[in-house]
Amino acid sequence: MFTRRSWFRLLALTILFMIPIVFSTSPARAVATSLFISEYIEGSSNNKAIEIYNGTGAAVDLGAAGYSLEYYFNGNTSALTNISLTGVVADGAVFVVVDNDANATILAEADLISSSSFFNGDDTIILRNSSGIVDVIGQLGVDPGSQWGTGDASTQNNTLRRQSTVCGGDTNETDTFTPSLQWDGFPQDTFDGLGSHTANCGDSAPFVSSTVPVNGTPNVALNADVTINFNEAVTVTGSWFDISCSVSGAHTAVSTPGPQNYTLNPDTDFVAGESCTVTINASQVSDQDGTIDNMTSDFVFGFTTVSGGFGVCGDTATLIHAIQGSGTSSPLNGVADIIVEGVVVGDYQNTTTELSGFYLQEEDSDADADANTSEGIFVYDNGFGVDVSEGDVVRLQGTVTELETSTGSGVFLTEMNAITTVTVCSSGATVTPASVSLPVTDLADWEAFEGMLVTFPQTLDVTETYDLARYGNVVLSNGRLFNPTQITTPGAAANAQQALNDLSRIILDDANGAQNKDPVIYPDPGLSASNTLRNGATVSGLTAVLDQRFSTYRLQPVGTVNFVDSNPRTAVPAPVGGSLKVASFNVLNYFNGNGSGGGFPTSRGADTLSEFNRQRDKIVAAFAAMDADIVGLIEIENDGYGSSSAIQDLVNGLNAATAPGTYAFINPGVSSIGTDEIAVGFLYKPAAVTPTGAAEILDSSVDPLFLDTKNRPALAQTFTEVGTTERFTIVVNHFKSKGSSCASIGDPDTGDGQGNCNGTRTDAATALVNWLATDPTGSGDTDFLIVGDLNAYAMEDPITAIIGAGYTDLGNSIANAYSYVFQGQFGTLDYALSSSSLTGQVTGTIPWHINSDEPRALDYNEEFKTANQISLFYNADSYRSSDHDPVVIGLSLGSTNPTPTPVPPTNTPVPPTNTPVPPTNTPVPPTNTPVPPTNTPAPPTNTPVPPTPTPTNTPVPGSALIYVSSSSGGSIGGVSFADEDILVLDANTAVWAMYLDGSDIGLSGAGARDVDAFHLLDDGSIILSIVGASTLPDVGSVDDSDLVRFIPTSTGATTAGTFELYFDGSDVGLTTNGEDVDSVYVAANGDILLSTAGRFSVPGVGGKDEDILRFTPTSLGANTSGSWSIELDGSDVGLSNSSSEDVWGLWFDEASPDNDYYLTTRGAFSVAGLSGDGSDIFVCTASSTGSSTSCAFSLFGDGSAYGYGSEAMDGLFVDLP
After folding, report:
1. Which residues contact residue 1021 at a Cβ distance below 8 angstroms, ignoring those fewer than 6 apart?
2. 901: pLDDT strictly greater than 60
3. How many helices (H) and strands (E) does the chain have?
């Protein structure tokens, strides 16, 4: 239902639930001829909305009538955005469709929030239903330049409201559109009229708008009332209604007083199995406004009463889809004596260990064709006494009820309860499960499948097991879900990714309403310490019943769920190389009581000595398996360094498990580090390293920017490798968590995805790198390693601050790295970051996934477990020794490894297509720091044959060369060219030459083969985009959203070579006509920068044709996958006034420290301090990029000066000397 005004909700409930509600009287008016667009908002930024008014005199079901909004961009005659509309709009009410990035004022009025690409002032909008066009703004096939109309009454940067005398839409999409004829105009960002509309079209006769029961309703109760709802307040006189039934005859009734809604209570009950007709006599019903009008004709409807008995199997019954209806609530809610017959698809009748009922689904032969109505329903028989089994055909009678699944949640499960009769008709029946997949487009989509058997034709991942043992449920997703700020920039992109994550998962429950159940059924035959269910496990072809319980949609199992251990445990970390092994390990509140076996429960850790011993054994096992030479500890009890301290206890345990003297700890010479109950620390092997100098502490006394009442003080120690003079300094950290607010110190959660206290953590990061720059331990060496729990994900401000200071994020050099899971989303909270001088000495880095992927039930705790489970769920091994994964780093001090080797986890499956990896637009370390590419795809195996020498008339490489393609054919500098060719200009000599002759390689002919974007790779091959769908040699069918790689054997006037598919746009969300790739640049690290011909909406990102996207691939070719982010927001820098400012050519100077983006546009452009046309090349020198782009513009090349005529440069590559 719509969440806007309360009166709208009430009326919508009236339509859906058929509950009589009395409304205030309003003046009558003539009905409008149809729905029409009543308000249009084209405001600043993404403040865009369309309001649709219903003045038809009756409620309109948008979905049933096939209503949709279509947006046609830049004169296009094909809709590039199509938004299906659903819901019921009451007479006199409006339905508001809003851009999801609009401001809060607009969003508050929204009935539908869409992430689709929205319109500009030069775009045509069509409201359509199943009968055809209902209303039009604009003129189809015409691009007016920037707007239709003038002044405030125009379509650009204005609000338009339909004049009150307009009572219908414009159904002619090709006629001239002049807004002032029917619209009143208002200045930009005028929103005060959104959400309501009045049309004054004169007076009209009253009519019946709805009834209960509706016409043709079967099985009406014998004592039912009859409700008549009029479109306006009316006066009724005399015998204004007649009720006549086939057996019981005429009925008189007592009527409520109206004036708009009347309930008739018959004086005598109906009898079983009869047909009744109700007639509203037009001559006795008149309206109450101005001119008195009677109804124009009698209104007649009928119903049948419940049969004389329960009947037998196969007799008429109420169909389940009629109970469910097409809305969120049943139209028969509260109706008793409803008889249904269907197939049992889920049997959960046990009243102690299950759900006290079963799921019934309509036979396939009785299912309707309405995709919005479910065919299943839950039957709460509550120990009624008739045992049913899956596959039984069951006939039963009971009451339809909307059950609120959690008090106050507003979420309801449609069920039948108060069961009076149950009969098993037959066994062995089947129904066809509905095919569903993740992600859904909207969580409300699940409602149409509530209670039904569903199947997933995809492989799903286990993404969370937090409640596995407590409540028996597992969260499944289509690929591992990452915390948004792990993989994209905070702000709009992160929030969009979060929305996608929310649509990409569903709970698999165990059909058991009990808590702390024994056994836990997942994985089969039951959870144990040796039979774990890890995140990353998979299940294929899952079939289950879709339930709605505890405020969320979830799956209930049918039969055994067969998980595949796609992410198995490893006994030890993968090798990281080097002569020293360093680790960071969060030991999850390691508190040893009083150190003598007492002092439990502790304030943060174990509650009993038994729990502590279990915790200790697990931690010791993990440390022994890691076998690290130095370990940075996080969350060790801050109780000093004496014989009974927690850190001494841990060393004692390790040395007992390995050999005496194997490990020692660093004593910084203070009684405790800071005032928190937990602290950081170091363990080390004296046989491998020697502490050099004293340890040093970073706290607020060293730098007030480091707030030690929120962050735990950092600890630094220099170590020298035994047997050498090589040394380095390691600092272990534990920044402020996201779990509690910092609003009291002015650092609240800003809603950008970084959570509470982001500023506090960022300040700590800044203070940390500043402190290390002073060499606090006096090591005399620039080799620094930052480790610890920074409580920030990879793309968040604290991490970018450290990287920006010249450090390399070693852990995230692995694609899809993670060390922690929260609410089913993965990311790195635990880090290893190396200074520029140390990076080349790093031989490998690996997060060891022994904790984050394991169910929490397998940890040391004994609460919420049966006596059996305290033993069954526990092994004294590494797994679930903590909630964070340790990070292990290999070092070869004194050596130089130009590219530190990221160690891929040996058990990590190939990431699914919706699992992005971190974009590479993280601040780049200084150029002397070797930065391992985070996710550069392997080059295609068919390495190109080196091109033959360029023809003599081609400029010599090394000169200033400009390569261009054109939007049309022509001639320049004596060289004739077509739109499929690439030309090269020697800017020093002003000589033009043919570089790629498209006609030689099959690109001539239809305009669809126009080369509209290209990039020259270092190996001599050429990345190409063509303007439309076509078939190419060696590749076959390609679309305008794809990129192909041309591998030349010769270039110039005689071009030859082969093609291969480089990038499949449809794999990664480029699926609409407007998402044609029309500029491209391939970065040195493999990332692809591109723009599109129209609006785009890809996973996590939406934008327009003036924007530039960055695609960070995990794979390329026929199975392209990766993640998206905004590189440049054109609207931020003035590229948004008209379609002519679509970015058409792009080249990025990676060698420049100034972030220079070389651009061409579709036509005329005007930006700050510069204007030109489509033949000019201009430079955006970006001081900031992403969602907040800032540029200084300069002209690089005036096309007319080089003889470039009226053509626009639609492809660009620059080779600077």
Report:
1. 944, 1045, 1046, 1047, 1048
2. no
3. 12, 76
Residues 865 and 887 in one domain: yes
As a whole number of Å, the CA-based R_g of the chain is 35
Q: Are residues 154 and 259 in the same domain?
A: no
Q: Which residues contact 659 (CB under 8 A, 6 or more apart)?
A: none
Q: What is the pLDDT of residues 39-98, one digit of tens each?
A: 999 999 889 999 999 988 889 999 989 999 999 998 888 888 899 999 999 988 999 999
Do 215 and 159 lie in one domain? The reply is no
Between CA 379 and CA 344 the distance in angstroms is: 10
Provide CB contacts within 8 A for 249, sequence distance 6+.
Answer: none
pTM > 0.90: no
Q: At what angle do helices 609-626 and 646-657 cross, to 10 degrees?
A: 60
Q: How far apart are CA 938 and CA 934, in angstroms?
A: 12
Say if residue 27's pLDDT is above 60: no
Please give the pLDDT value at position 1163. 82
How far is Cα 626 from Cα 618, in angstroms, rounded to an integer?
A: 12
Amino acid letter, 578: G
Helices 758-772, 797-804: axis angle to 10 degrees equals 20
The residue segments making up the domain with residue 75 are 35-186
CATH number at residue 246: 2.60.40.1220
In the numeric block, the tokens 């909008």 are attached to: 125
Domain boundary among 536, 568, 600: 568
CA 481/CA 885 separation, integer angstroms:
17
CB atoms within 10 A of CB 1005: 12
Task: Show Cβ contacts of residue 4 under 8 Å, excluding neighbours closer than 6 positions.
Answer: 96, 108, 109, 110, 111, 195
Q: Measure the CA angle with vertex 1083, ends 1077 and 1089; round to 5°.
A: 25
How far, in whole angstroms, is CA 232 from its chain's centroid? 44
SS3 category, 556: strand
- Convert the pLDDT of each residue in 533-546 to its tens digit: 999 999 999 999 99
40 located within any domain: yes
Amino acid at 594: N
Which phi and psi (to 5°) does residue 717 adopt? Answer: -145, 135
State the burial class of residue 690 (Cβ atoms within 10 Å of its Cβ: 0-12, 13-18, 19+): middle
Last residue of a domain, one of 568, 596, 620: 568
Q: How far apart are the first and last CA of the chain?
A: 63
Beta strands 1108-1115; 1101-1103: pairing state: unpaired
Structure tokens at 1210: 């639609």
Q: Do 857 and 812 share a structural domain? A: yes
Domain harbouring 1178, CATH code: 2.110.10
Best CA proximity match to 1115, nearest among 901, 906, 932, 939: 939
Burial class (CB in 10 A: 0-12, 13-18, 19+), 132: exposed
- Tens-place pLDDT, residues 423-480: 999 999 999 999 999 999 999 999 999 999 999 999 999 999 999 999 999 999 999 9
Distance of CA 185 to CAs 159, 201, 366, 1138, Å? 6, 21, 52, 20
Q: Does 505 reside within a domain?
A: yes
- 23 domain-assigned: no
Q: What is the CATH number of the domain that holds 417?
A: 2.40.50.140
If asked whether residues 424 and 505 sit together in one domain, one would say no
Task: Please report whether residue 943 resides in a domain.
Answer: no
Both 258 and 354 in one domain: the answer is no
Backbone φ and ψ of 267, nearest 5°: -70, -30
Tell me how many domains the chain contains: 6
Q: Quick one: DSSP state of residue 1151? A: T
The domain that contains 535 carries what CATH number?
2.40.50
**Residues 356, 259 within the same domain:** no
| Distance from C-alpha of 23 to C-alpha of 200, rounded to nearest angstrom | 20
Q: Could you tell me if 1066 and 1176 lie in one domain?
A: yes
